[in-house]
Predict the 3D structure of the following.
Amino acid sequence: MKIESYKFGEMIVDGIKYRKDLIIFPDYIMDNWWRKSGHNLIKEDILEIIDAKPEYLFIGTGKFGLVKVSKEIISYLENLGITVFIGKTDDAVEAFNNETNSNKISAFHLTC
């Protein structure tokens, strides 16, 4: 899947416009991703990602980077063999689009 564009509150993936936070899996998009603790990512928020066993996970923390990912979550994912990229959503989009490995997943906060 290719992210064609991102701006505050909106992402276009393969010609489809999304206006809610989303997770891009290799074969589908979850377009209603909601975190239980708001701007704090917890393990429960990414269980489906963990179950999918990606090699790469890109986390977009919002236009201004307000979503926080703890060191414990990062260590947990890395111990599972998942390479993690965390950055503001603009940067995570660029990294996701540049990664050629197809076993990748991304989780994007589209607003703040």
The chain has a mean pLDDT of 97. The domain at 3-108 is CATH 3.40.1230.10 (Hypothetical Protein Mth938; Chain: A,). The first strand starts at residue 3 and ends at 7.
